[in-house]
Amino acid sequence: MFAKRLFRNKLSLFGLAVVIILVLVSFLASYIQPYDPLKISISNRTQGPSKTHTFGTDHFGRDIYSRVLSGTKISLTVGIVSVTLGALIGIILGAIGGYFGGWIDYAITLVMDAIISFPAVLLAIGLMSVMGLGVTNIIIALGFIGIPHYGRIVRGAVLSIREKEYVEAARASGSGHLKLLLIHVLPNAMAPLIVVTTIGVANAILIEAALSFLGLGVPPPAPSWGNMLADGRNFLIQAPWMTIFPGLAISFTVLGFNTLGDGLRDVLDPKMKQ
Amino acid sequence: MKKYVIRRLVSVIPVLWLVSVLVFGLIHLVPGDPVLVILGTTAEKDQIEAMRHKLGLDRPILVQYGTWIGNLLQGDLGHSIISDEPVMEMILRRMPVTLTVAAAALLLSLSISIPTGILSALRHNTYTDYVFMGLVILAVSMPSFWLALLFILLFSVELKLLPMMGYVSIFTDFWEGLRYLVLPAMSLAFILAALVARMTRSSMLEVLREDYIVTALSKGTPRRFIVFKHALKNAFAPILTIIGFQIGFLLGGTVVIEDIYSIPGVGRLIFTAITNRDYPVVQGCILMVTIVYVFVNAAVDLAYAYFDPRVSFDKK
């Protein structure tokens, strides 16, 4: 039923196709990239797009097409792993807060409100400036920033059905807290969670690109799209292709996850569709 | 309404307290000894001790926090490690620049998005609607810092219409200042405009289907009057929410955009401080921008209560 509705929705179908292509590219990048993305060739530097170098070359003569393909893996890894981390912690905290209520709920809600009070990019910049560069640190920083977005959804879902009769009945028949949460409560939060995590991946990819662009993300010479834009910025006039293609890759990826998220929202919650 | 205003403002206090704890804790996330990270491993022992004492790191952590928050409540964010200037003064000097850029972006985005959203809703399921919504989906996917680079390429390098970088205050020279503001504001406004246009459209669609609108139409009330007087006011509460959410994006984005256009705001200050490992300045900037964000959000909530009075009663 869900799959049928998903495939009927053009928006989600487009997003899904883009995401599948990106996942395939990230796995197959080392086989389909025409050149080594790290190989320096000074004689080939800042060459425009041509038959030999589809997207041109950068200031070190590295093939931009190969670097863009290779960058897919970094972006998807950061996006998906950080969202998974944030969602896992958020779900646990949101469920505990909503289910037990009282001061535990107040404390958890307060922490979530505090995290969400920071402009996300600014908090990411602050965390990366003290933790240091690297993919692992980006994942930790973005995961931390994402926690309240997932936690709030789960807390809301738990609060809305905590007192429902079937939950009371399950409790009376001896179901433990964990079983109640996993079987009766969490499934109710799945639809909004799926939508928010999908759009969360797009946001995480955007913030990772911004951090790398500012020199606070993935350390060079790794072919992260943000790093490539940072390089391109210094050659904006001589070699605009160094800026155009990595930016297009980011936009295409974010577009894919956003449209998938929007499509899933239409499919999972038809009332939202206008 | 008065009670709601007081309650909303009081609710800010615990959040700000926890924000202060998180910002204070930042320096303790530095791997290893933050003093060695600041001074380098070749620093002399007495230099290390002096810096540790200056940063207060030679005292128990609770005492450090107590002193820090006590000073903060008196408007003292410490001194820059590099220039020894008071951090608060450094930030207050640059904050108007950041807020001017953010406000310009917000004004620009609202002037594009609200008419676009209304038009899209009025021409629901027509080509105008499809084109606008297609543009919205595209605009939301483009990183603002990439757009900033493309705008420089187009408007400064190719067309030579606008300055590539730099800043002139609009309070010093309005027209010249405006020329310097256009590209940064456009770079930030694009995504924001797209999100607000989408919300305006869906919110207007919902309101335009309400019975009272149908009744007003059937009584012969002019359509323009209905759209602006009845529909827009009622559709405005959800639009305000999305604007409130996006203020954070705007402030964070401004920090990045300032780096690209060499605008001497808080963003540039943060990056210089990060390069110099000037942690008190980094902490101060993050804290002050977040405080602005928290209060802007509180103001948006209060405005929401004005547009939708049910909000203030719901929370009783």
Describe the global form of chain B.
globular
Low-confidence region ranges of chain B: none
CATH class of chain A: Mainly Alpha
Reported for the largest beta sheet of chain B, the result is: none
User: Which chains make the largest contact?
Assistant: A-B, 44 and 51 residues
Report how far apart the termini of chain B are. 10 Å
Oligomeric state of the chains?
A: heterodimer
> What is the number of helical segments of chain A per DSSP (H or I, 4+ residues)?
11
Q: Gap between N and C termini of chain A, in Å?
A: 21 Å
Q: SSE string of chain A, helix = H, strand = E?
A: HHHHHHHHHHH
Description:
The complex is a heterodimer of chains A (274) and B (316). Chain A has 274 residues and is mainly alpha-helical. Chain A has one domain: Orthogonal Bundle (MetI-like fold). Chain A is built from eleven helices and no strands. In chain A, helix 2 crosses helix 3, helix 3 packs parallel to helix 6 and helix 9 runs antiparallel to helix 11. The longest helix of chain A has 37 residues. Chain A is elongated and about 75 Å long. The two termini of chain A are 21 Å apart. The mean pLDDT of chain A is 89. Chain B is mainly α and 316 residues long. Chain B is built from 13 helices and no strands. The longest helix of chain B is centred in the C-terminal third of the chain and has 39 residues. Classes of the chains: A mainly alpha (274), B mainly alpha (316). The interface between A and B is large, with 44 and 51 residues.
